[in-house]
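Hi X.,

You mentioned you wanted examples for the new student's onboarding notes, showing what a folding record looks like when two proteins sit in one file. Here is a clean example. The first protein comes first, with its sequence line followed by its structure tokens.
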Amino acid sequence: MKTYSLSQLAEYLGAEVRGDGDVKIHAVSTLARAGKGQISFLSNSKYRSQLRDTKADAVIVQPDDLEFCPVNALVMKNPYVGFARLAQLMDTTPAAAELVSPHAVMAADVELGRGVGIGANAVIESGVKLGDGVQIGAGCVIGKNVTIGAGTKLWANVTLYHDVQIGRDCLIQSAAVIGADGFGYANDNGQWVKIPQLGRVIIGDRVEIGASTTIDRGALDDTCLADGVIIDNQCQIAHNVVIGENTAIAGCTVVGGSTRIGRNCTIGGLSAITGHVEIADNVHFTGMSMVTKGVSQAGAYSSGLPSQPSREWRKAVANVRSLERLSQRVRKLEKHYSEHDSADKGDR
């Protein structure tokens, strides 16, 4: 178990030490559960009561919370970012694969960089290029002519179809499928005629893709995810979608084909974005949003209705069903009064 002095951690984070800089830290934990040798963080002042009672050896706090901290502290503007960086530093997650397993199946022309790990029963097809330090978990299938950049990690049972390109330092969780056919068909008198999906999936650097997420290949052009994109579990990204830098998409979201999403967007879980629309940079959709047209202005958007007691919901639905009838009555009244106003003006 590697340990660090509080002063070393302060230097790593660019934080200020308050208290004993020699105290030894080996792990990160919550305020409520942290104990000796552990560091925690406070990023929301409503949890100050937990700060008061914490048994942590140190806590990362912002300047306004320092006076409430009863233990050693690292002071910085954004404690949550400090926590994230220390969690990376002290991460004990094992490698997806450390060596090339004798039970892996590889084509003769596969190009391996230095320090590549390939797990048991992985299949690596012809023309694949794996950069330095790539980890391919057990049971992965890497299709023909795939390129994976240095430092990228695939957990078990990931499937990459042919011609997929993935950049450096990406993380792909188990059972993700990248490069499957997009949903492209033409209708010939009631019969569906499949359109071969001839594009690729191109993924930039530092992209993370959640478990069981599917990213379809392009129909003619490519499906593209730019640097820094993060996608949660069980999402569907359809063919020819383009997602800009550092956009985050939460779980169970669906993005329709040929949609373009800008940079630095956030999309809440269970959202659905229709196809062939464009979303500007810095757009933020709350959870369960239904996006049926493009958004050209940055800002926050919502459409999901919060739950309510069933009796109230039934009444609301009944009222919605009456809206058309009510609208017709209003139009008749408006027409009636408009005609009377015209008649009155004519008499003057």
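Then the second protein repeats the pattern, sequence line and then tokens:
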Amino acid sequence: MSFGMERDNKQAEDGELYAVYLLEEIQGQGWGRQLFKRMVDILKAKGFSTLLVWVLDGNPAIQFYRAMGGEVTKQKEIVIGGETHLEYALSWPQI
């Protein structure tokens, strides 16, 4: 898991979850929820009050972030390998 200050300095949120990876065999066992809650605790302790994460269209992780209270608030197109993809920002206005 990687997180910290919102990277673009263009968003209303001050914290950002950059990436989180769990082995497939441990997904669905509560590890993601525990890591997410720990990240929120760390961000709060450092003075952060809001959070966002960008998720590519079609990524099933969007359901996890929604279950953790995130709401889709923005979208943008990004280019990866010469192809245009849609990316969604899920936000937590107060962590």
